[in-house]
Amino acid sequence: MLLLNASGCLDALTAPDVAAQLDAFVTKTVTPEPREGNAPVRIAETDAGMLNAIGLANPGRDLFVRRILPELASTVDAPIWVSVGGFAAREYAETCAVLGAGDGVAAIELNLSCPNVDEAAESAAEIVAACRAATELPLYAKLSPAAWDIAEVARAVDAVGADGLSLVNTMRGTALDARLRPVLARVTGGYSGPALKPIALAAVYACRRVTELPIVGMGGVRTGRDVIEFVACGATHVAVGTALFADPDAPRRVRTELQIALADAGFDNVDDVFAVAHEAVATVDNRG
To answer: Which residue, of 132, 165, 212, 267, is most buried by count of CB atoms within 10 Å of its CB?
Structure first.
């Protein structure tokens, strides 16, 4: 099992000591052209997490490949996964082709479900298919928990060549201020934090039932117990996200807690926990 960061929750160049705690580092999402992101206010705290409406702010593909990626490669010892975004399948594919032509990238995470920007018109499967034709690098499709049938989306991207899944992205939410007006300038943002975990667990569970692809589970991960719950639902790897903002030492702490959580649950090794939640599920006949 690998422990990663969720994309957008860690800058390895400003916090290399935090990145050093991870088994792989995931970059912020890179788009073909530079983006300033959405207008402020872009961050709002909630009772059980946070909303972000950053809007994929990034320096653009060319500058990322020319300057930032080499800096990351010389700073981070762990494999580098690049999060790729776009507004059409062609844009995703072009970026994947550029990344695949160079060195320093271990895998690509396709951000197919950012709730803070307009989405591409093509389906997730169409985007993955275009990217598969453009690169031989491993492709992880990051899916939205808001999908009506996320398992069907997982099945579709599996069929066209995805190498793995990242589950889940944030969910769209809104926060109001004391005057009952939206806190975020965009009104809505992506919700992350502890309350996302049950939703993420359900997504991992559903997708594991229909695919054998590796799954990176994420959403509300704060403790070692959270990690083994994701693995029990079928995650191959786990990512820490929002917890990093409050506790930069979270990956190291989670590793320590993981051993305690395993012992409390009666297991010696995290691999022994894999998909155990699927072993004792009752089938209920509701037909009357």
So the answer is: 165
Please report, for the chain, the start and end positions of each structural domain, with discontinuous segments joined by +.
3-37+56-170+193-278
**Quick check: helix, strand or coil at residue 248?**
coil
Cα separation of 272 and 269, whole Å?
Answer: 5
Q: Say yes or no to pLDDT of 288 above 50.
A: no
**Angle CA(184)–CA(196)–CA(153) in degrees, nearest 5?**
100
* Per-chain mean pLDDT for the chain: 95
Q: Give the mean pLDDT of 269-278.
A: 97
Tell me the Ramachandran region of residue 60: left when phi exceeds 0, alpha when psi lies from -120 to 50, beta otherwise. left
pTM for the whole thing? 0.95
Q: Which of 132-136, 242-246, 264-268, 278-282 is least confident?
A: 278-282
Could you give the CA distance from residue 34 to residue 56 in angstroms, rounded to a whole number?
A: 9
How many CB atoms are closer than 10 A to CB 124? 24
Fold of 3-37+56-170+193-278: TIM Barrel (3.20.20)
Query: Which of 114, 131, 207, 233 is labelled catalytic?
Result: 114
Q: How many residues does the chain have?
A: 288
222 is written with which tokens? 């704060």
pLDDT, tens only, 213-268: 999 999 999 999 999 999 999 999 999 999 999 999 999 999 999 999 999 999 99
Tokens 């155990």 correspond to 276
Cα 132 → chain centroid: 19
Which residues, 6+ apart, have CB-to-CB distance to 55 below 8 Å? 35, 36, 37, 38, 42, 116, 117, 186
